[in-house]
Amino acid sequence: MLLTRPTGTPAYEMGPHTRLNAIPWIDLLNPTEEEINLASEKLGFHIPSRAELNEIESSSRHYEREGILYLSGPLVRRYDTGPITRPVGFVVSPTHLVTIRYADYIAFDAIGLQLAEHSADAPPPSPAGLLTDLIDEIINRLADLLENVGHTLDTLSRQIFGSDERKHRAHASHTLRTTLKRLGNTGDLASMIRDSLLSIDRIRLHLSTANKQDLLPTHITNPAEDSSSKLLHNRLEIAGRDITSLNEFNTQINNKVQFLLDATLGFINIEQNDGMKILTVASSIGIMPTLIAGIYGMNFRIMPELNWSFGYPFAIALMLVSIAAPLYWFWRRGWLTRL
Questions:
Q1: The predicted structure's pLDDT at residue 246
Q2: Three-class HEC string of the chain
Q3: Residue 326: what are its φ and ψ, rounded to 5°?
Q4: What is residue 224's predicted lDDT score, i.e. its pLDDT?
Q5: In the chain, which residues fall in CATH 3.30.460.20?
Q6: Cα–Cα distance between 200 and 73 in angstroms, integer?
Q7: Residue limits of CATH 1.20.58 in the chain
Q8: Which regions form coiled coils (predicted)?
Q9: CA angle, corner 21, sides to 26 and 75, nearest 5?
Q10: For residues 210 and 219, what is the distance between their CA atoms, to the nearest angstrom?
Q11: Which pLDDT tens digit goes with each residue over 186-244?
Q12: Please, which residues bridge with residue 27 across strands?
């Protein structure tokens, strides 16, 4: 889909006869090869394909060609089915910002709505200013994701350490396994957020250090702000500090994920040890009764108890005592309190 986002007007799809002179932002959402070629033909410069955006070399993700700045990187998107990362590309020319994306990120729609509500009397935002707005909004969305990850870990921590009583062993085992899976998914999301922050930070740095004066804005989206390029760089510096603080928080998240993983595995080991205790108790209390039954079942000719009228009750009582004695011993040692 080729979306044109003019100033003061809601976005609409680009057609073959759409004029792009007064449109600062062209947004390509899940574009086909034909749509990329159409946009490139109308704009007069190269638009990278998905294969190009997926390149991992820094020289392929951040470069300048004929006065056009090309920036790209992975960006996380969280769905109900789980988080994913998709490549996102930004092409900054003196007159247009072109975005290429393969997921419906909320940050893009938020800035698009802001651009649609832009006053017609104010000067239109520059491509670099629009990209700076996008960077700020993406950082805000990533911060929200990190906050959700933190709340999820707090909930999991209370589940893991909140109660020492596990009356139903099967339920406890299922709970620990479920917790382990949730921790793994949370760790994956935190890793994706870290990659996205790193990507956005590199985009910010390359935009900030762009040495082409035509790429610097003459005004920012907010008309009340100073329109100098110095303000743009100040905004990008503030964004860099925000990314640094989020990276520090993400490091704490990763440490907590690892701690909770270790704790969950420790509880699983304890549950397994308790299972071995059950087997130990069962095998121990069965040894002596089996031995007694084996002795009195040998049928030797001379066995005093064979002709004793109380021989059978005596053998039964002896077996019961041999069962009760180890049970009492295990109980005194605390082995039976959680079994």
A1: 93
A2: CEEEECCCCCCEECCCCCCCCCCCEEEEECCCHHHHHHHHHHHCCCCCCHHHHCCCCHHHHEEEECCEEEEEEEEEEEECCEEEEEEEEEEECCCCEEEEECCCCHHHHHHHHHHHCCCCCCCCCCHHHHHHHHHHHHHHHHHHHHHHHHHHHHHHHHHHHCCCCCCCHHHHHHHHHHHHHHHHHHHHHHHHHHHHHHHHHHHHHHHHCCCCHHHCCCCCCCCCCCCCHHHHHHHHHHHHHHHHHHHHHHHHHHHHHHHHHHHHHHHHHHHHHHHHHHHHHHHHHHHHHHHHHHHHCCCCCCCHHHHCCCHHHHHHHHHHHHHHHHHHHHHHCCCCCCC
A3: -65, -35
A4: 40
A5: 2-273
A6: 7
A7: 274-332
A8: none
A9: 15
A10: 17
A11: 889 999 999 999 999 999 888 887 744 444 544 434 444 444 567 777 888 899 999 99
A12: 3, 99
Q: Which residues of the chain have pLDDT under 70?
A: 120, 163-172, 211-229, 335-339
Amino acid at 41: E
Contact 271, 176 (CB under 8 A): yes
Give residue 320's Cα distance to chain centre.
Answer: 58
The domain defined by 2-273 folds into Beta Polymerase; domain 2 (3.30.460)
How far apart, in whole angstroms, are the C-alpha atoms of residue 77 and residue 195?
12
Beta-strand relationship, 97-101 and 25-29: parallel
- Architecture, CATH, for domain 274-332: Up-down Bundle (1.20)
Instruction: Look at the block and give the residue holding tokens 């294969």.
Output: 51
Length in residues, the chain: 339
* CA distance to 99, 137, 217, 235, per residue, from 227 (Å): 23, 20, 7, 12
Residue 192 one-letter amino acid? M
Give CA separation, 275 vs 160, 269, 338, in Å.
19, 10, 10
